[in-house]
Amino acid sequence: MKTSKFFSGSSAEDIDRAAKSLFEGNLVAFPTETVYGLGADASNEDAVKRIYQVKDRPVDHPLIVHVNSMQAMGHWVSSVPEYATELARVYWPGPMTLILKRSCLAKDFITGHQDTVGIRIPGHPIALALLDAFSNLGGHGIAAPSANKFGQVSPTSADAVFEEISQKLGSTDLILDGGECDIGIESTIIDCTTENPILLRPGAISVGMIQDSVGNLLEYEKSNTSVRTSGSFERHYSPRCKIIIGGTPVEGEGYFAMIEYETPKDVIRLGSPRNADEFAHLLYKSFRRADQIGLKSMVVELPTTDGIGFAIRDRILKAANGRHDIP
Ligand code: TXA
Ligand code: MG
């Protein structure tokens, strides 16, 4: 039983209350199928500023605006290329964010002064219900980054949100508890402002799925100098625990690998996924657990690159990189 005043259930009444609270300028952390988001009214500058304070995030990093329909997206964007409409038709609601040319209503405090805006229609029923209730009040969209401290591991449960940011929340902010996130890693981000789509951050909507839908996809570009995607920064998604890629763990180390890998003696097993989907679902939870029990290092065996495996490898490599310059 969760006793903190921040936790809210997710009944229809709870969701209405949370939407009203958002509309009044408070923050509401909520579940999506990828990870938990820290939400604010995307039209309210003061509320959005608080997201940055709570996360300790640099203010020039743009936020994703979550909406409940293509019609609602129209408020925030000025033009949508045909291929983006096709992607949206196939993969929304779902774990995909499209970067589009912004309208004059997507202000600098959302876009980090860029002329583009990130939009997502999430597939999680609680997120959609919250967006519907918010829209019924007259709201246009909910800005929500992952509900973690900047550079840390995204939360995939309400408890993980509490652990990350509760110290910075105000007495009228809320955490909507919707259990564990299904997917467990952040959405696929696709830049749709150029002739062909560009993959900025891989996710559960895989390269193959995007190509099936639109073809002509430019491969994953690690850094696009004109666009700021914090996932492309070196130190990211990092637990305090050092992440070692592959190899045999030694006594006292953590270990995360597919179920067929045996656990050597005196090694702490942190996850044994049976497939790539389970791998993604369990990964951040294992990072968090490693920190909770004070492990200094853990070995993670990379999955294969197909499907969501490509995105999982991206997150593990970043988590491992992120440790190089930390004493
Ligand atoms: O799965 C997700 O995408 C989650 C859930 C809550 O929706 N959100 C999420 O947000 O991961 P965040 O802020 O932690 O990561 C979104 C990334 C950031 O690195 C941000 O810089 C990038 O998307 N982004 C947002 N708007 C952008 C834009 N206009 N151009 C380029 N990158 C953008
Ligand atoms: Mg994030």
Structure description:
- With 327 residues, the chain is α/β, with parallel strands linked by helices.
- The protein contains ten helices and 15 strands.
- It has helices spanning 12-23, 45-55, 70-73, 82-91, 108-111, 125-136, 158-165, 207-214, 276-292, 309-321, and strands spanning 7-8, 28-30, 37-41, 64-66, 77-79, 96-102, 116-120, 142-143, 174-176, 188-191, 198-201, 242-245, 254-256, 268-271, 297-300.
- Strands 1, 2, 3, 4, 5, 6, 7, 8, 9, 10 and 11 form an eleven-stranded mixed beta sheet that branches. A four-stranded parallel beta sheet has the order 12-15-13-14.
- A hairpin with a 6-residue loop joins strand 2 and strand 3.
- Helix 1 (12-23) packs across helix 6.
- The chain is globular and about 60 Å long.
- Residues 224-228 and 323-327 have low confidence and may be disordered.
- The site of threonylcarbamoyladenylate has 27 residues, from strand 6 and strand 7.
- Magnesium ion (MG) binds next to loops.
